[in-house]
């Protein structure tokens, strides 16, 4: 009988342990106000007030049950909604929804949030009714949002406070002209509310452990594509295709370095060359110049779970037509579907001028 009861107790203990709470969550509500940065003189007429709005987020905490959570100091992930009144009847109001990560520093008192999502604007450009809005050419926008806040949870029961600065960027990444976009630099003040009475203890199995990671050089092949338009309003949207091949070498468990090449087939550029040859004869263009470009690039990949952040700096080695300069930047996300296949969503730009959002699929061998 004692042996039977011992087995029952052991099974009960295992079941309780297996069902131990591994996550907790909280919400935060913030008011913000600030200014639209003058990143382009052509939008000066659109800056005549102090934008304000609210930021509402749901956050899921991690406690180190997966190794990547410990490596990045137990980040949060979740979803954010932003309402922004741009204080200008021409610009209207923006509503946006994001996926985000929160990273912590200074004994978890300093929080850095980075978010990517989609926005909706109520009053985009219209050549007849709203021709002054050269910031937003479409109702649907791409949006990036970053926040740096000092944060203190559970000051009063489940309530806490946070305050700091935020940057909210809206544009359509040249999906359709005009596309000057806006960058709002704001200050925010908010409250947090923990949804759980108790939280698990942090797992520290990697403390003091030197993680060794070795992997041979891998070869990546990617096909990217999308739609974009030149800066000439009404010139039309055209598809583009980018073929990329690059090698990457993991230097540690978090990072890899990349070196590769891109071949760009951008139909909008072909049409833009023809337009320039007709509209500006003094530039002595025939209209038959090659619109294709070839670039080489170096890059970095930061691995976070099955998602990674990629940054690449490129230079056109084949550049028959001068368009926005010979250097380009690519920043975006890479999501591994399994050990070999992955999907990507990246933004390619020349400095602060976006050329297009690229959606792609690739293989890593």
From TrEMBL:
InterPro entries, A to Z: Lipid-A_deacylase-rel
Official protein name in the record: Deacylase
